[in-house]
Amino acid sequence: MFVSIKEAADYLEISETDLRKLIFEKKIKAFHDGEQYLVNTAQFDTHLKEMERIRAEIQAYLAEPVPESSYVKDED
User: Fold this and answer.
1) Has this prediction a pTM greater than 0.70?
2) Are 50 and 57 in contact (CB under 8 A)?
């Protein structure tokens, strides 16, 4: 779906200025229709899904208990 820069910035939760900077740096694809830039939000779906998957993996890793080391001796 093609949206305006304002709508795309809201979708990505960044400022319009930052989004324009990313467009001009060619890090985000956008089309200029002669009057305004239009951004296809579908280009972000894969990235956002991958970020959610990575975030879930990190949280699962951090939730694991630390295994006891066989090298640590109880000196009592």
Assistant:
1) no
2) no
Residue 39 burial by Cβ neighbours in a 10 Å radius (0-12, 13-18, 19+): buried
Report yes or no: 9 and 18 within 8 Å, Cβ to Cβ. yes
- When the candidates are 3.40.309, 3.90.105, 1.10.10, 1.20.120, the CATH number that belongs to 2-63 is 3.90.105
Query: Tens digits of per-residue pLDDT, 31-59?
Result: 998 899 999 988 888 888 998 999 999 99
**Which tokens is 55 given?**
């975030």
Domain ranges of the chain: 2-63
Half-sphere exposure of 43 (CA within 13 A, CB side): 13
